[in-house]
Amino acid sequence: MKVYYECAPCFLRQAREALDLACDNENLKIEIMEEIAALLGKEFNKEAVSNEIGTTIHRLIKEKTGNEDPYYEIKGNCNEIAVNFLPQLTEFLQGEEKLEMFIKAAIVGNIIDFGALGVDLEPLDLMMEALHEPLEVNHTKELEKSLKSVKSVLYLADNTGEIVFDKLLINKLKEYAVDVTVALKEKPILNDACLEDAYQVGLDKIAKLVTTGTDSVGVIHSQVSPEFQKMMDEAELIISKGLGNYEGLTEIKFGEKPVFCLLNAKCGPTSRDIGVAQGSNVMVKLS
């Protein structure tokens, strides 16, 4: 996805929050923000890809501060939020058979996003509201058709906390007799889920776990490992979670391969790119 004009102040807001999490050195923060401002002045244009710029900014902050995981404590908060909400979600799904309901449950977890919505996010009320909202774009029937014609699914995970709810959907997907491989980040960035986070919630018990080989925001085809590039290129069906993955996947040509993005359109640019109101739940087929 190409940037929209309001992506620029969002990058600066994220940079400020990440810097405050990463270090207490005010002089260093000024130096790093100078670099980020210069970066945006040089790279921000209508052809720039949003998750590529975001990746560069967060990598710069990690490198310059020496803090490889500024969002470490926040990721713990994400897991706590998910655990607290899980009983309500389990009750909501009690007796449900429709794939659409499990998709909605997985999308609700996507609201636990401190990158898009800020570090002061209190998502529980938003999650409950979203659970009872319709899917504004609903390509569930197309997904069901695809699931019946493939043997394997590549599932691109997004945030910590959120992966607790992904387990519910992945178990449902396996009823279609498909093998599921879940891709996570090789190294920390924002509050994205890494391999160790997936082990902590038991994802390895229901799916094969791999990493993208890098720490990019979402997927950037040219930056993931050669092994993961091959995995994406050869995947029969891709299911993706979250804004960052949507931003990256829309820049990749997949041909006839079915690619489905599940997300809450939390920001104005993403909602306009998809063509829905901000805050909408969507399950959209890209190809």
Annotate the secondary structure layout.
Elements: H1 7-22, H2 26-43, H3 50-65, H4 72-93, H5 99-109, H6 114-117, H7 124-131, E1 135-138, H8 140-147, E2 152-156, H9 162-173, E3 179-184, H10 195-200, E4 208-211, H11 226-234, E5 238-241, H12 243-249, E6 259-264, H13 268-274, E7 281-285
Parallel strand pairs: 1-7, 2-3, 2-5, 3-4, 5-6
Antiparallel strand pairs: 6-7
Helix pairs in contact: 1-2, 1-3, 2-3, 5-7, 5-9
CATH architecture of the largest domain: 3-Layer(aba) Sandwich
Strand order of the largest sheet: 1-7-6-5-2-3-4
Q: What is the averaged pLDDT score?
A: 92
Biggest sheet layout: 7 strands, mixed
CATH class of the largest domain: Alpha Beta
Helical segment count: 13
From the spread of the alpha carbons, the general shape counts as globular
Structural class: alpha/beta
List the uncertain runs.
none
CATH fold category name of the largest domain: Rossmann fold
Find the count of extended strands (DSSP E, 2+ residues).
Answer: 7
Count of all domains: 2
Assign a percent range to the helix content: 40-55%
Helix/strand order, N-terminal first: HHHHHHHEHEHEHEHEHEHE
Please identify which CATH superfamily of the largest domain we are dealing with. Uncharacterised protein PF01937, DUF89, domain 3
Strand content: 5-15%
Radius of gyration over alpha carbons?
A: 18 Å
Determine the N-to-C terminus distance: 15 Å
Word description of this protein:
- With 287 residues, the protein is an alpha/beta fold.
- It has 2 domains: 7-65, Orthogonal Bundle (Helicase, Ruva Protein, domain 3); 72-285, Rossmann fold, CATH 3.40.50.
- The protein contains 13 helices and 7 strands.
- Strands 1-7-6-5-2-3-4 form a 7-stranded mixed beta sheet, with helices on both faces.
- Strand 5 (238-241), helix 12 and strand 6 (259-264) form a beta-alpha-beta unit.
- Helix 5 (99-109) runs antiparallel to helix 7.
- The model has no long low-confidence stretch (mean pLDDT 92).
